[in-house]
Every structure is written in structure tokens, then in C-alpha cells.
Amino acid sequence: MKRRIDETDRRLIARLQENARIPTAALARDVGLSRSAVQERLERLEKSQTITGYTVQLGDTARPVLLAEVMIQLEQKQSAGVVGALQKIPHCIRCLAISGEYDLIAEVAADTPEELDGVLDRIGELAGIKRTSSSIILSTKFDRR
Amino acid sequence: MKRRIDETDRRLIARLQENARIPTAALARDVGLSRSAVQERLERLEKSQTITGYTVQLGDTARPVLLAEVMIQLEQKQSAGVVGALQKIPHCIRCLAISGEYDLIAEVAADTPEELDGVLDRIGELAGIKRTSSSIILSTKFDRR
DNA sequence: GTTTAAACCGATGAAACGCCGGATTGATGA
DNA sequence: TCATCAATCCGGCGTTTCATCGGTTTAAAC
């Protein structure tokens, strides 16, 4: 009876973070278990939502050309309406609630400067927003989230 | 002679975004090519950095408890050294170069407040950094990157 | 002490893999 | 025009991995 993820699970996850397409048999050799045992572990991790999926990481070429970070200060501390509005904007690909001077960080993607400009304007005019501050993302130095 | 990614490449990428561990043979059936042709396409996409890797997506249970955004102002506009130092810190999971008052945004993950505090201190004391501003991430409102 | 279920192993036939030779196609330049 | 060259694809090969299952061990639960 095991519920908690143990050291072996962590090692499996670590290897999959490096390369999710590695064969199960190779994982098994890495951690010193049989292939079928590893297979069962992965099924458990997936079923328990510890692992929610496997995806491909794309380089800049296939990603949207322009990215920006938008720091947002709310008028009241009720973020729900603003977050909902942001979520309806397809260009808005991420939104975090933060502590400090600003209340939200939104990450925005666009294909052209004009498009980005339009999106930033649209965000700035949303109801419930006091102030915004935008930074164009010049490059992704690294990303291992 | 093909350089640009075509519709088939996009379909392959789309399938891999859903599940990066799907067998190449299944991808081949999906797009109507031979297995070896798909294998060559993937090698091309990887070599051209269109695809940079494959990773596992983790649920909340396995994710770090605490996240923070660190805005970084450099002393000179030479980011290479600082970025390299940040990349060596395992807690630092992402780094973007931006325009504006600050030069870099780093995203930091930690399991405890003490650990986060230590990481932020460590970043603040790196050579080449003039000033930093940190915001704890209270919650991820949405993320569809 | 018995029951029960989780976790593992090893075996087996089917499927997928890496690798390579050969056909096709379309652009390049003699 | 026609030979050349590289890109792209296919199919086949031996090897590896896969899904699945029965059987063993372990340890908590009763």
C-alpha cells in the first residue's frame, strides 16, 4: 500500500522532464526496476493526477513572434471580473495573481506589433483596472517549467 | 527541398502537444505517412529547434508550493553572466529578457518560505545585478501557454 | 494467523523501433 | 535539354519495446 510518491517516482519524473519520449524500458533500467513495474508506477502517477500529461516544447520559430508581460494594478482587490475578461482574450496566455504594488501579471502573445498594441490597449481599457505596465519580452533565456 | 514547416508538421506537433508519448507509428497513421517519414520529420523539427524537447506535465500535488516573479535590473546590459548564474540555480525555472525599466524577469519556485527567501537573497547578491523587485505569486488564474 | 491488496517480476506474442537501401521528385546548373 | 544533387518518402530487416497476464513477495488490516 503506497500512496505518497517516493524517491523512485521522483527519479522517473525527473527523467521524463528531460525527455518525455524516452521508452519505458529505458526508464526501468535507469531506476533499477522491471519495465512492467515502471509502467504500473506511471499509470498510478497519471491516475492520481501527479502526472497530468506529456507535451512537446517548441522553439521560438513556431511560437508567436511577440510576447509581453503586463503588470496590472486593480481598482479594487476583486480580481475575478478582470481575470475573466483577460481569459476571454485569446492573446492572453497566462495570468498570475501576485503580491506587491501590482495585483496581476498577464502574459500576452501576438504575431505583429500592431496586434500586440491592440491587445495591450484592450487590456488597459478593461473595467476594474487602475494601471498597467507592459514590458516586451525580447527573448526567452531559458524555460524549464 | 523543404525548410518551412508545412501542414503535416503542424499536425504532428498538435498531436504531440496532446500526448508527447504517443508512438511514432501512431503519429504516422494519423497523418497518413510512413513511420520512417514521420521519424525523419521529427528529427528535422528537432534539429531545426522547432521542437526543443518533450516534457511531462505535473499536477498541483507535485509542483512547488511557492512561486515568485523577480524583476531584475542589470548593472550593464550584458546579461550573459547573470543568465548563466540564474540557470545554475535549480529553483530558477524561467528567465526572460525584457524591455523597459528592468532587464530580466526570473521565475522562481521553492517548497517553503525559508527556501524562497534564500533563493531571492542569492539572486540579489549575484554579480552584475543592480536592483531586483520580487512578487510572490499568490495563484495562477489561468495558464494556456 | 489469515485475509487482502499493493508492488514487483518474468514470460509471451504483437507492435514499434533504429537503420538503411532504393525510388521519386523538383530545383540547379552545365 | 539533360545530368546532378538533395530532399523526401517508402518498405524491409533484425532488434527492442510494448501491453498483458499469472505468480511471488510484502505488509497493512482484521
Walkthrough of the structure:
Chains A, B: Residues 5-83 form the HTH asnC-type domain. Chains A, B: It holds the Pfam family AsnC_trans_reg. The structure is a homodimer of 145-residue chains. With 145 residues, chain A is an alpha+beta fold. Helices cover 37% and strands 32% of the residues of chain A. Chain A contains five helices and five strands. A four-stranded antiparallel β-sheet of chain A has the order 3-4-2-5, with helices on one face. In chain A, strand 3 (92-98) and strand 4 (104-110) form a beta hairpin. The two termini of chain A are 31 Å apart. The mean pLDDT of chain A is 90. Chains A and B meet through helix 1, strand 1, helix 4, strand 3 and strand 4 of A and helix 1, strand 1, helix 4, strand 3 and strand 4 of B. The structure holds a DNA duplex (30 and 30 nucleotides).
Rg calc of chain A? 21 Å
Low-confidence stretches of chain A: none
CATH superfamily of the largest domain in chain A: Lrp/AsnC effector binding domain/regulation of amino acid metabolism (RAM) domain
Biggest sheet details of chain A? 4 strands, antiparallel
Output the strand order for the largest sheet of chain A: 3-4-2-5
CATH fold title of the largest domain in chain A: Alpha-Beta Plaits
What structural class do you assign from the helix and strand content of chain A?
alpha+beta
List keywords for this structure.
4-stranded antiparallel sheet, 32% strand, elongated, 2 domains, 5 helices, homodimer, 5 strands, Arc Repressor Mutant, subunit A, alpha+beta, 145 residues, Alpha-Beta Plaits, DNA-binding
